[in-house]
Amino acid sequence: DVAKAINEYKRRKDLVYKYKKLTDQTFSDKISKLNLHSIRKKSSRIKGRLSTNFGIGLQMRDEQFEKEEAKFRHLERAVKVFLRSV
After folding, report:
1. What is the model's pTM?
2. Rounded to 10 degrees, what is the CA torsion of 48, 11, 37, 49?
3. Could you tell me if 38 and 44 are in contact, meaning their C-beta atoms sit under 8 angstroms apart?
4. Is residue 9 over pLDDT 80?
5. Cα separation of 28 and 12, whole Å?
6. Which InterPro entries does the protein's record reference (predicted)?
């Protein structure tokens, strides 16, 4: 749809203009671009990154993956032993 493509192009252009204006040199100009949604989004990303880095985040255990990994490690050791004996 041509109208949809034009609207999407204009929307992207407006977003780029909003965040990349050369006149936004002052701190207050940068703060004025922030809204509650962007602050929440950024803080949740930072919180997730910190919790992952410190090991606090929820980690799911995949038993099937652990079984397959154990098989792989066992085969890897067997191949190393075989190569040493050849």
Report:
1. 0.34
2. 10
3. no
4. yes
5. 24
6. AH/BAR_dom_sf, Dynamin-Rho_GEF
